Amino acid sequence: MDLLKNFIGARSGNFAIIVAICAPVLFGMGGLATDYALLYNKRAELQNVADAAALASAEELVVSTATASQVQSAAEEFVLANFYTTKANVTKSAALSINAKMLTGERGVKVDLSYEWAPFFAQLFDPGVTPIVVSATANLAGKGLTCVIGLMPQQRTAKSTIHLEDNANLRADNCDVYSNSTHARGIRLDPGAHIEANTICTAGGVWFRSTTSSASPKPIEDCPLIQDPLKSRPGPVVGNCDEINLVVGTDATLRPGTYCGGLRIQGNANVKFQPGVYIIKDGEFLVTDTASVQGEEVGFYLAGINSVFSFDPDTSISLTAPLSGPLAGLLFMEDKNVPFNFNFDPWDLLNLPIDVRLHRISSNNAHYLLGAIYVPKSLLLVDATQPVADASPWTAAIVGRLWLKAGPTLVLNADYSKTEVPVPNGLLSIRPVLTK
């Protein structure tokens, strides 16, 4: 009994005994922490690969009449090329299970990945830690024309690339609408505003400011950023000035050429543009008062500082893009080298900074605008009280920011088979996007 009391009361060596008793527990806890950290990293890596593999295999649906085996092969090749395991003596194919299948209607692909890994301790407490199972689904966005692309990156003051103010309507029934802003308000719909399109896709989110704001179909969020489809499209050669600071106040016929200092059409002038390319250099293209303009197979190239267009409310506008040449399919194209800025005060449009480019369609008789409006460094403001472009077979807007102010209706049709005006390469496309 005395020996037992002496052992219990002894102080020397107790620390070593405690450490010996606790060491397995501490070691196990450390092993669990390591396992779950590895689990988190491996799952995130695998999910990223699954997302990318779904997009890659969905591309098969775009370029060909894909079979199930082609989709499976595309997914396998991508995953095996991009997912790397550090586990020694185990091949990628042995550790991975890859299953890709086409969705009903062959409009999308679902990729399921299962990865067997060897944790230290976690499987003793939680058998579900292995295998790691993830999935990703990519659907085809659109079936033809992309008629609205908002390319502006997120800004300090302007976070939305597509902004519809109160009761504004954007009707793009048979084509796609795309916003490149990664902000949660990449598309902004104020009370009463509505978008109707074949597909609505945004790299960020959609802000419905009211229960009366709506979009059909439901927008797809977190879409991959889209590149400017016309980035490599060269502009026409800017020649010597044919006209300088030209103001037209009576009926006239204008010829293609370089209009330095801009072009102003005013009063009740009725102006006809002959077919060809009109270069508006270092000045505005303005149609004011009750003037009207019309032109078939005409394109306007906006070069230099302040080369923007503006059509006042009581004017009449009817324009058709060229069938061929440097501006084939383009009604308006801006010089890629113009200075630009997207930070501005929306309540003070009369005092915009010199490098903020604002094009404005206020005309209540602009029903026929056949072709693409390509102004990626600018804001396109539409504030007419009557529908715009509704009579055109097709119209597209590739802009920095699309702004529908004061309740207008912008109609972007996609009946491109009903006209000889060509759709620029890059706008007729189908792209896969991830869906949640």
Whole-number count of domains: 2
Question: What is the residue-mean pLDDT, rounded to a whole number?
Answer: 83
Characterize the biggest β-sheet: 8 strands, parallel, barrel
Structural class: alpha/beta
Estimated share of beta-strand residues = 35-45%
Order of helices and strands: HHHHEEHEEEEEEEEEEEEEEEEEEEEEEE
Residue runs with pLDDT of under 50 for 5 or more positions: 85-91, 121-125
Indicate the percent of residues in helices: 10-25%
> Care to count the β-strands?
25
Radius of gyration: 30 Å
What features would you describe in this structure?
- With 436 residues, this protein is α/β, with parallel strands linked by helices.
- The chain folds into 2 domains: 15-130, no CATH class; 143-435, no CATH class.
- The chain has helices at residues 2-9, 14-63, 68-82, 92-95, 122-125, and strands at residues 96-102, 108-115, 132-150, 162-164, 169-179, 187-189, 194-202, 206-208, 214-216, 243-248, 252-254, 257-265, 270-273, 276-281, 285-287, 292-295, 298-303, 309-311, 316-320, 330-334, 358-361, 365-382, 395-404, 409-411, 428-435.
- Strands 12-14-17-20-22-21-18-15 form an 8-stranded parallel beta barrel.
- Helix 2 (14-63) packs across helix 3.
- Residues 85-91 and 121-125 have low confidence and may be disordered.
Concise account of the structure shown:
By secondary structure, this protein is of the alpha/beta class. The protein has 5 helices and 25 strands. Helices cover 19% and strands 37% of the residues.
